Amino acid sequence: MKIKSLILYICALPILVSCSDFLDVKDPAAINPAIWNDESSAKLYLNDLYALCMPGFGGDGVGDGSLNNLSDETSDMSSTILLGTLTTGGVGTYSSNTYQPIRYINIALKEMASSTLTGDARNRVLGQLYFLRAWQHWKLINLYGGVPYIRDVVDYQSADSILNAPRNKTSECIQYLKQDLDLAIKDLPAAWTSDEYGRITRGAAAAFLGRVLLFYASPQFNPTNDNSRWKDAYDANIYARDLCTQDGYALMDISSPQTTQWPFTTDFNKIFITKKSDGNKEVLIVTPYLQALKYHGYENSVRPNEITNGTGRPSNCPTWDLVISFPMIDGKVAFDKSRKFIGNTDIKKFYLNRDPRFYATIAYNGCYYPLEGNATRKQWFYTCPKTITDSLGKKTTITYYAENTTSDKTSPTGFYCRKMVNPAISGDERAKTYTDWIVMRYAEVLLNLAECSFEYNQGSNSEVGYDCLKQIRARAGIEPGGDGYYGLKSNPEFSPIELVMNERRVEFAFEGIRFFDLRRRNMFTNNLGTNILKIDGFKKSGSGYKFTLVNTKDTAIFLYPAKRDTVKFENISKYFTLTPMSTGPLVKSIAYKTAITQDELKATADGSYNFFDIPSAILTRSPALIQTNGWISNGFDPFE
Question: What secondary structure letter does DSSP report for 265?
Fold first, then answer.
């Protein structure tokens, strides 16, 4: 089926579901079994499953916060997870809506047992079903630990042991999930035709298994640091890397011609505005969008208010903590353990000589930010003194050219998000954005492998890890240095794990990954090392700077918009002072709650966010389920 048709079909799905309870049949025999004898008709069923299982743009949220706002990437502090005030049942992913697609998958697998499809056609259908069953269960396992891993059709005639299924141990769930993904890898093709690029390949399934086993080896699931789990994760990610390479996946070439507006040799955002169907070999798992058929409003949500004329602040405004996490152009770390910028001696020059990914991710005061067809547009974001004195001593009152940083329509941090913004999209298209949501890309395979290599067997595989990091940094445009390590050994006080986790933070900013990285490595409540400290207590809503125009005769140029735009890139700093945003008592601190060992978890019923509680309505309906340790009326150990 053409991808255009697939998207059209997915767009219609909510209407079909709400009007006719589509596919919600109590008797699977009511579905014409003939559809399983033809791959094209089976794809229609599969298209529904993709729509039900795969995330929309921005990823699947958790509780009352988007994935980006649940991390330290943005200044938003509205989530009860970050405030430590999550109520029982506050994360409702454990629901019939999550299990419903699993039932449809199991119906399909049961029907495929008698299908007349053979050969590659049969394998392609089965491979997608096995992958989607593993994918859907992982949504639950990641949030709750062990859950009922359903591999049979559950309907009104099912035995009670299936209909009212108890929770499988987490270890059992991982084994079942691995079995499903191994079958998927065996059955799936190495590639699909370009018009079916939204479908899963064997390389994507292998990469996903590598991700799952990395999580299972991480402190969230592995508080005793069982090294055998790191070995399993290492082996899986080695296999994923090799299979992906064999099948043609690679880091995308992001080389870019240098211009006055973009004086860099690479453009990181090429990854996100180049579709897999247009030759982007980095994309492994994707939710496709197509102009006028299936779209989202990302461009409208992150661009400055002066562009969108929106009614509220733009989203994804980067924190200062994220700004300083990007290394320097030579690869050196730009911050110290007190979260102080040390990349340049003058903090006002924070934007000079940075990793090129910085410029593709962060829009800062005075930077070129082409939008709405204006290739030379600059982004200004500052306050002015009430009057300014020109070179002749004349004082002029400033009323127009200052951007008010206290406005509820401007960034609360002093920075805007540039990640995944496509300057070619303008006008009405801002609310109908067709940029694909990349769920997983080859860069993650390399960074997953790097982390496992540093952890497994006390770092004896560290050169594998460094090689992965060097590939990421070389592609980004960081200088190789005299030793060819791209600055990775310039800060020996940072452990390899600190380096790889910061690299993930930079590479995957605003891609919905940071929250889960913080959670699985216990970085909310524990120091990662001596230089990257826990973020509980961090007042991220006060993380940022206000830029104020210096009142000297040299700044008279800012009286004239056309002239201020001629200020050279390297000279912007001399015109402004930086004042930290408020960090007073009204600014809320991150207070994520968790118990990170079996004994700690058993000893509390106050709530623990590494493994959320199953909503009480579900427990009432399914009495075989036992509540997770760490919550009221508990008894289920998610570490087993």
Answer: S
Q: Tell me which residue of 507, 465, 514, 508 sits closest to 489, measured CA to CA.
A: 465
Nearest one of 260, 207, 262, 216 to 236, comparing CA atoms: 207
Asked whether the beta carbons of 344 and 398 are under 8 A apart, the reply is no
Helices 462-476 and 442-455 meet at what angle, rounded to 10?
150
> What distance in Å separates the CA atoms of residue 269 and residue 256, rounded to the nearest whole number?
11
Return d(Cα 532, Cα 520) in angstroms, integer: 15
Looking at residue 482, its pLDDT comes to 96
Q: What is the DSSP annotation of 472-539?
A: HHHHHT----TTSSTTTTS-TTS-HHHHHHHHHHHHTTTTT-HHHHHHHTTTTTS-SSSSS---TT--
Cβ–Cβ under 8 Å, residues 544 and 415: yes
Asked whether the beta carbons of 392 and 243 are under 8 A apart, the reply is: no
Cα(506)–Cα(495) distance, integer angstroms: 17
pLDDT of residue 461: 86
Round to whole Å and give the CA distance between 187 and 119: 10
| Chain Cα centroid distance, residue 460 | 30
Which alpha helices (H) appear in 309-373, and where do they start and end? 320-323, 356-361
Domains and CATH numbers, the chain: 3-58+92-188 (1.25.40.890), 312-423+541-580 (no CATH), 598-636 (no CATH)
The size of the chain, in residues, is: 640
What does the alpha-carbon distance between residue 303 and residue 297 come to, in Å, rounded to a whole number? 11
pTM of the complete model: 0.93
Q: What is the pLDDT of residue 428?
A: 85
- Cβ-contact 289, 435 below 8 angstroms: yes
The Cα 31–Cα 109 span in angstroms is 13
Residue 292 CA from chain centroid, whole number:
25
Give the residue among 124, 175, 167, 122 at the shortest CA–CA distance from 148: 167
Check the CA dihedral 242-246-248-253 and report its sign. Answer: positive
H or E stretch covering 177: helix 170-187
Residues lower than pLDDT 50 in the chain: 1-5, 7-30, 400-402
Q: Quote the pLDDT of residue 11.
A: 46
What is the structure's pLDDT at 2? 47
